[in-house]
UniProtKB/TrEMBL annotation:
<dbReference type="Pfam" id="PF02133">
    <property type="entry name" value="Transp_cyt_pur"/>
</dbReference>
<feature type="transmembrane region" description="Helical">
    <location>
        <begin position="276"/>
        <end position="295"/>
    </location>
</feature>
<comment type="similarity">
    <text>Belongs to the purine-cytosine permease (2.A.39) family.</text>
</comment>
<feature type="transmembrane region" description="Helical">
    <location>
        <begin position="118"/>
        <end position="140"/>
    </location>
</feature>
<feature type="transmembrane region" description="Helical">
    <location>
        <begin position="209"/>
        <end position="231"/>
    </location>
</feature>
<keyword id="KW-0472">Membrane</keyword>
<dbReference type="InterPro" id="IPR030191">
    <property type="entry name" value="CodB"/>
</dbReference>
<dbReference type="InterPro" id="IPR001248">
    <property type="entry name" value="Pur-cyt_permease"/>
</dbReference>
<protein>
    <submittedName>
        <fullName>Cytosine permease</fullName>
    </submittedName>
</protein>
<feature type="transmembrane region" description="Helical">
    <location>
        <begin position="323"/>
        <end position="342"/>
    </location>
</feature>
<feature type="transmembrane region" description="Helical">
    <location>
        <begin position="152"/>
        <end position="168"/>
    </location>
</feature>
<feature type="transmembrane region" description="Helical">
    <location>
        <begin position="348"/>
        <end position="370"/>
    </location>
</feature>
<feature type="transmembrane region" description="Helical">
    <location>
        <begin position="43"/>
        <end position="65"/>
    </location>
</feature>
<feature type="transmembrane region" description="Helical">
    <location>
        <begin position="433"/>
        <end position="456"/>
    </location>
</feature>
<keyword id="KW-0812">Transmembrane</keyword>
<feature type="transmembrane region" description="Helical">
    <location>
        <begin position="71"/>
        <end position="97"/>
    </location>
</feature>
<keyword id="KW-1133">Transmembrane helix</keyword>
């Protein structure tokens, strides 16, 4: 792996060279990936990732912002706008992954240099582990609602085992998702949509448009969490066209649908996210379709565990990915056994957005307009030189995000929002109704990276 390939290679690589075996993902980093995923594979994959039990609960971050209810039109608009913006970022990352033919964090060797790429790699590992723990926990919560109780630890262990098994043959798992799971999920979602509409949708009290942009930011943060994972899968795409439209269309449709169903279910229980699963179970025969959603939630934890392994391979490129995924699956399962609540979930989303929204801006501008356009493209080898200057727009974007929308960390980290409040006062800056953290933290580093393009092209 020395530079970004100008076009995808159509040659499939069979795992371990076994004749007749379906092409699978390489075992180590520096191996040409098989290009087996077409538009339908990718659309189905991203459609499945756009529907989530966590997504249903995330609707609470849109319905209620800063203690105030949004109106139904405001909440729905926030969902659509936030999803479309996040999906465009996802689609761009998908295209870069297809062109580079490398996992997401290995691609950052070209942006930052190999050693400096370890910084976002470690942050992405933390993000993926956090999401993996959230996913196994919410699967256990769903199973608890499905079976009206039962041992939490057993549900977590079962979900962890299924997750780990899927990561061993990732391309095979994506094929299964396309052939069987996507259809079942679509049927389940259609059933709940019809049944919830038949019940009627109560209006939240005193709903307004106040808090619209923070709600958009919360939706973008969920979408953006997949941006640093996208290339782990789209490096196997047959074309950039299929990778962009597969990611954009599949994720946009399913996440909007997921949030809409989540909003309808939340309103049935007065906006209480902890009771949202009871809405689904309270529908006649709802347990059958809810079981489908609980079982398929494993594709979320699969994506996070597998991408954690891909990130670790940027640090240790010659470790067999199967060993990594098994070890990481066990780690995530163990951590999920210790989680008791989601009290830090919204703050977690804020930090994800602050880190990866500006990073996606710097990545896209430098790849399409900066050093990525030089002859030979980016250097993705283990000796790729450090490019310190690319840290500047990323850091500026992070600061912009936190100044507008500080992560509301609590406990030992309660100093964090206080620090940013003091910074706002020192700069005589107060967020306004039109200041979107996600949009400003994308546009500012994008423009700064573009302005620095002459320097970034000349050297490192």
């Amino acid at each position: 792996m020395t530079s970004v390939s100008p076009s995808p290679s159509p040659t499939p690589v069979l795992e371990q060279g076994t004749p007749g075996l379906r092409a699978e993902a390489p075992l180590i980093l520096d191996t040409e990936p098989p290009r087996t995923l077409g538009f339908r594979d990718q659309a189905a994959f991203w459609t499945n990732l756009g529907v989530s039990l966590i997504g249903f609960q995330s609707a609470a971050t849109v319905l209620v912002v800063n203690g105030k209810n949004l109106s139904i039109p405001a909440a729905l608009t926030a969902v659509v706008v936030g999803t479309v913006i996040g999906s465009v970022m996802l689609g761009v990352a998908a295209v870069i992954g297809t062109r580079a033919g490398a996992p997401a964090m290995a691609i950052l060797r070209g942006l930052f240099g190999t050693r400096l790429s370890y910084l976002p790699t470690v942050l992405n590992i933390v993000q993926c582990l956090g999401w993996g723990v959230f996913e196994l926990t919410v699967i256990a919560m769903g199973a608890n609602a499905l079976f009206d109780g039962g041992p939490h630890w057993l549900y977590v262990l079962a979900a962890g085992a299924l997750t780990t098994a899927m990561t061993i043959r990732p391309l095979g798992s994506i094929a299964v998702l396309r052939k069987y799971v996507a259809v079942a999920v679509g049927i389940a979602m259609l059933f709940f949509t019809v049944e919830l509409l038949r019940r009627g949708v109560p209006s939240p009290k005193d709903g307004s448009w106040s808090g619209f942009l923070p709600a958009v930011d919360a939706v973008i943060a969920v979408s953006i969490s997949f941006v640093p994972l996208a290339a782990d899968y789209t490096r196997h795409a047959k074309s950039t066209r299929s990778s962009f439209w597969g990611a954009f269309s599949g994720y946009t449709v399913s996440q909007v649908w997921c949030y809409v169903v989540g909003l309808m279910a939340l309103l049935q229980v007065g906006g209480d996210a902890d009771k949202i699963f009871t809405t689904f179970m309270g529908i006649t025969a709802g347990w059958v379709f809810f079981a489908v959603l609980v079982l398929r939630e494993a594709d979320q934890s699969f994506a996070n565990v597998y991408s954690t392994a891909m990130s670790v391979q940027n640090l240790f490129p010659r470790i067999d990915r199967r060993i990594l995924t098994v070890a990481l699956g066990a780690l995530v399962t163990g951590l999920a056994l210790l989680v008791t609540d989601f009290s830090g979930y919204e703050a977690f989303l804020g930090l994800i957005g602050a880190v990866f929204v500006p990073l996606s801006a710097v990545l896209a501008v430098d790849f399409f307009f900066g050093a990525g356009r030089r002859e030979g493209g980016w250097d993705l080898s283990e000796s790729a030189p450090t490019r310190w200057l690319t840290l500047l727009p990323w850091a500026v974007g992070f600061v912009v995000y936190q100044l507008i929308y500080p992560a509301e960390l609590t406990g030992w980290a309660s100093w964090w929002p206080t620090f940013w409040t003091h910074a706002q006062n020192a700069l005589h800056f107060q967020p306004q109704v039109w200041t979107s953290a996600s949009l400003f933290s994308f546009v500012v580093p994008a423009l700064l990276t573009w302005a620095l393009t002459p320097l970034l092209r000349k050297g490192h």
